[in-house]
């Protein structure tokens, strides 16, 4: 609908809207903030991709699904709270959000998808809740500011390249019996793995 409108700097989404469709605001690079109304239940694939001016987003509790690549390349987004109604952080949802420093993952989330936070190079703090059972391939790869992480006991496997190239990663706590792929911590020169 508004994809590629690089001169559009703000928009009011009416309360009659229930879904922000695929690619709706893709490439609207002048947006600095957006408020999503309580009527919205789904944010579609690539909905806000490459909204590089976006610094903050308010996602209401009405949202149950956030699509693939929805906020990919929102390079000035510094923090985001995912509502406690979302169960999955999908494929590349926050990929290349290079300004993102922290993320709040609610207890409702059971799956962190492949490459979900790939190349979030400023991401320093992540708490993975005990509701999460699956962390996908490359989910936190190239998160070079991440220094420590605790994997909850609900996770039974850490996939390929999940934390690869997290060059500042110092300590990871992993539950006993969790299967760790040999490339999960590839190019993490200082990492110490502690089993609990």
Secondary structure blueprint with pairings:
Layout: E1 19-20, E2 33-35, E3 42-43, E4 56-58, E5 65-66, E6 79-81, E7 88-89, E8 102-104, E9 111-112, E10 125-127, E11 134-135, E12 148-150, E13 157-158, E14 171-174, E15 179-180, E16 192-195
Parallel strand pairs: 1-3, 2-4, 3-5, 6-8, 7-9, 8-10, 9-11, 12-14, 13-15, 14-16
Could you give a quick summary of the protein structure above?
With 196 residues, the protein is mainly β.
Which features characterize this protein?
196 residues; mainly beta; globular; 16 strands
Describe the protein.
With 196 residues, the chain is mainly β. Helices cover 0% and strands 21% of the residues. The chain contains no helices and 16 strands. The chain has strands at 19-20, 33-35, 42-43, 56-58, 65-66, 79-81, 88-89, 102-104, 111-112, 125-127, 134-135, 148-150, 157-158, 171-174, 179-180, 192-195. The strands form six sheets. The protein has a three-stranded parallel β-sheet, with no helix packed on it. Strands 6-8-10 form a three-stranded parallel β-sheet, with no helix packed on it. The protein has a three-stranded parallel β-sheet with strand order 7-9-11, with no helix packed on it. The mean pLDDT is 94.
So what's the oligomer here? single chain
Count every beta strand, where a strand is a DSSP E run of 2 or more residues. Answer: 16
**Element order: H for helix, E for strand:** EEEEEEEEEEEEEEEE
Structural class: mainly beta
In DSSP terms (H or I, runs of 4 or more residues), the helix count works out at 0
Strand order of the largest sheet: 1-3-5
Query: Considering DSSP H and I runs of 4 or more, what fraction of the residues is helical?
Result: under 10%
Distance between the termini: 50 Å
The residue ranges in which pLDDT falls below 50 over 5 or more consecutive positions are none
Strand content: 15-25%
The whole-number mean of residue pLDDT values reads: 94
What form results from the Cα inertia axes? globular
User: For the report, how would you describe the main beta sheet?
Assistant: 3 strands, parallel
**What does the radius of gyration come to?**
17 Å
